Amino acid sequence: MSTYANQISQHTKIGGLVAGTMLLAAATSLPELTATVSAGIIGNADIAVGNGLGSIIFNIFFLFLLDVHFRRHRLFLNVSDHHLYTGIIGLLLCAITCGGMILHLPLSLLWISLISVLVTAVYAAGMWYISQKQTITQGSSAASSSVETIYVPRTVQKFIFFAAVIFVSGSALSVSGDIMADTTGISATAVGSILVATATSIPDAVSVYVALRLANVNLAVGTILGSNAFNVLMTAIGDLFYTKGSIWNDTSNQTIIIAAAGFVLTGLVMAIIKRDHTRNTLTYIVPSLIIVTSYIVIITSILFYNENS
């Protein structure tokens, strides 16, 4: 799918930023969406929210794990500053979810939590702004229209086909995670944020790996930041199917830790994006190693918290 998204970004006017932030990110997040909606339907708020927020920190972890792998190319020195807009949207969404879960706001619109309404509004406004920004900065990118008409329709068809395959493949994870939490004693939050989130994030991981091999770092970063924003939105969508109240208020304190970690790690991503030079390879990979280590510490703390709860 990264190959097809890369072709779409090169042969149409949407560019790598929008292709990664909206097109590829949403498609590769379909397993998370099906898992979260399924968890909402069966009434397991911890798996639903844990999957969405856990996918955020896993995606960032894997992105910078690959940055360490491709360290000699120093790809992240060439990232467009336009991804900062997506990062800001992600920060806002993490702040809304974290603050909402801490405050346990009882406000709702019909049966939908106010947090879900705010998340949806911020996401929609942010994506609209990014698309407008991309249109303004597109400039004079005159590609051959004959090449576009020959290859783009077929590429889009293949992209939609594989998106459908991804959608179907993620449906059973929530049910198996719910059973695992009941039978093993592992908290549902730990199952959702670690096991289910890792499994549903595999399409993101593969897409980012292929994008970086194609040296399309903007597609890779856009995929991760866009997918992370979409992961928060899909948790709000899961709230639609959760009938026991607010999906945000019925989660454990571990989900607050994950939301806060997502906020911090997204902030670190934005700081790394702003770099335009480093002295050597060692100084280049230090920030990436910090993020990779931070993820391991966060996951360990969640498991440790579970053992003593």
Automatic annotation (TrEMBL):
Pfam families (alphabetical): Na_Ca_ex (PF01699)
Keywords assigned by UniProt, alphabetized: Membrane, Transmembrane, Transmembrane helix
GO biological process: intracellular calcium ion homeostasis
Keyword Ion transport: no
Domain Sodium/calcium exchanger membrane region: from-to ranges: 2-125, 159-300
Compartments where found: Membrane
Signal peptide: none
GO cellular component entries: plasma membrane
Residue spans crossing the bilayer: 49-70, 82-103, 109-130, 159-180, 186-212, 219-242, 254-273, 285-305
Chief location of this protein within or outside the cell: membrane
UniProt GO MF annotations: calcium channel activity; calcium, potassium:sodium antiporter activity
Record protein name field: Cation:H+ antiporter
Protein's organism: Salibacterium qingdaonense
